[in-house]
Each structure stands twice: as C-alpha cells, then as structure tokens.
Design goal:
Layout: E1 6-12, H1 20-32, E2 37-43, E3 55-59, H2 66-78, E4 81-84, H3 93-100, E5 105-108, E6 123-126, H4 132-144, H5 146-162, H6 166-182, H7 186-190
Parallel strand pairs: 1-2, 1-4, 2-3, 4-5, 5-6
C-alpha cells in the first residue's frame, strides 16, 4: 500500500459479539512477525491494555454530525481492509459501507455476515472461532500476492455498485413486487361462482 503500515478498520459497538479481541490479536500477530499493522476501532471501547501504535480508538461516531461523519469517511478511505470477526449479525451494514469504499472484508462465516460478504470475491470468510492468527495469515498472503488483494478490493466495490446499495436493493424489491403482481391468484380462479 506504500504507507508502510497495513490499516484494518473495525466498526461496531458490541466488542465481544463483534470479535474485537480477535481483531486485536490479528494486529498483534502481524506486528510480531514484522508486518507493521494498525487497528482503527470505531464504536466500541477496547477493554484492557493495548499499544496505541497498534490500536487507535475513536469512540462512537455520530453520522449526523458533519465532523464525525467526515472522520468516519476518512477512516474508510485510508483503511486497507475491514475486519469483523463477529459471531452473529442481523444484517451487517458496516461491511456494505466498507465495500462502498472498495475495502475487502475479513470476517467469520457467521449468520448475517455471509449475506454481505461474497467469500473469495469481496473478502474472506473464516470458520467461527478462528484465532486472530488466521486473519493475520490472510493479510500476510495479500502482502506476498498483491493481485489477490486488489481483486478482492475491486470485487468489493463492484458488489456495492451492482448489489449492495439502496438503488439496487430497491430495484430488486420492485422487480419482485411486479413479478408477484403478474402471477394470477390460483385460489381466486378455483372459487366457484355464487351465480352458478
């Protein structure tokens, strides 16, 4: 990336469920093997002692405040990848926001996440419970094979442009509604007429 440091972005309020400790472990593993890495944490408060050179905390950012929204955009723009080792999600918006910025995602193959990350195309999904070292191995591989990283970054942005934005979601919903309205109601056709 030319910066001399691989920046991972973590966005989430629930540190435990979102796997914040795994993200910190991944960054520690990278730094321990000589690849300078830094984790940027938005939302959650990191418990315990962390090296400020390896983990930067921004607290909860309010998107309705222009200066905080600008900071969040800058973090997405300057990050090299998004990390979310979450054990479960409903519908994960932060991964789709990362895709909008062309960030590949490193995450667990968990409910809700697998609907937002196309494994091998927009990011990488790992089995639940995988340690931070597995995430670190993926980043090290990207450093040795930058074309793989670049393909995932392009895939993330393409996924956002074609499938994971409001315009495409509303369009798909409208197509579904229109298709449903074109199907005749078989129950109505089978009801006997009262006039007969």
């Amino acid at each position: 990336n030319g910066k001399g440091c691989f920046d991972l972005l973590f966005v989430g309020k629930d540190w435990i469920r979102k796997g914040g400790d795994v993200a910190v472990e991944a960054v520690r593993c990278l730094n321990a093997t000589g690849l300078k890495a830094r984790l940027h944490v938005v939302g959650a408060e990191v418990p315990g002692e962390v090296s400020p050179g390896q983990v930067r905390q921004y607290g909860l950012l309010d998107k309705s405040k222009p200066e905080e929204m600008q900071l969040l955009k800058r973090l997405f723009t300057e990050a090299d990848a998004f990390i979310l080792p979450s054990s479960s999600e409903g519908y994960v918006i932060s991964v789709l926001e990362a895709a909008a910025f062309g960030l590949p995602t490193l995450a667990y193959d968990a409910d809700g996440v697998r609907n937002a990350v196309v494994d091998g195309h927009t990011g990488l999904l790992f089995p639940l419970g995988s340690p931070g070292g597995v995430f670190a191995d993926a980043v090290r591989f990207w450093q040795r094979q930058p074309a793989t990283y670049e393909a995932l970054a392009r895939g993330a942005r393409q996924h956002y442009e074609t499938s994971a934005n409001w315009r495409s979601c509303v369009s798909a919903l409208m197509e579904c509604i229109e298709e449903t309205l074109r199907i005749p109601n078989p129950k109505r056709e089978l009801k006997p007429s009262l006039a007969a």
